Amino acid sequence: RGAVQVLDQAEATFERYAVPGAFEIPAAIRFAIRSLDVFSARRRFDGYIALGCVIRGETSHYDIICQESARALQDLALNFTLALGYGILTVDNREQAMVRASVDQGNKGAGAAKACLEMIGLKRQFHLYPR
Questions:
Q1: How far apart are CA 110 and CA 51, in angstroms?
Q2: Is 127 a known active-site residue?
């Protein structure tokens, strides 16, 4: 909800897509990068916001998912000059996730949306649009 509030306040248009888990977020963003606007043959989106949550379990799977999803998103941002807001929560339990996600407390979704919008603005300052 925090991300949606920020985007609505900025009068930004957006589309939301669900994926099975945090590990799949980078691939979904890569799919979106490759999807072109049919009229201009350019990227459909000015920026991307990765929102998700990984809760620590009893195995090292948590560490692998957290590291690999973050690395893959950073690679996408650098390799494709993306404006990307990172909002994947990495927490020990559900209660921590709820506090960080809550619009009245951590509001990490809003932070990710603001970061994305700021990076879109920065790209425009460098005249990197449209791409």
A1: 10
A2: no
Instruction: Identify the active-site residue in 34, 42, 44, 61.
Output: 61
Q: What angle (nearest 5°) sits at the alpha carbon of residue 70, between those of residues 63 and 109?
A: 105
With residue 126 as reference, give the H or E element that holds it: none
Average pLDDT over residues 83-107: 96
Q: What is the reported pTM?
A: 0.92
Is residue 94 within 8 A of residue 55, CB to CB? The reply is yes
- Please provide residue 23's backbone torsions phi and psi, each rounded to the nearest 5 degrees: -60, -30
Nearest to 116 by CA among 3, 29, 36, 34: 3
pLDDT band at 38 (very low <50, low <70, confident <90, very high): confident
Nearest to 68 by CA among 48, 39, 88: 88
Tell me the percentage of the chain whose pLDDT exceeds 90.
89
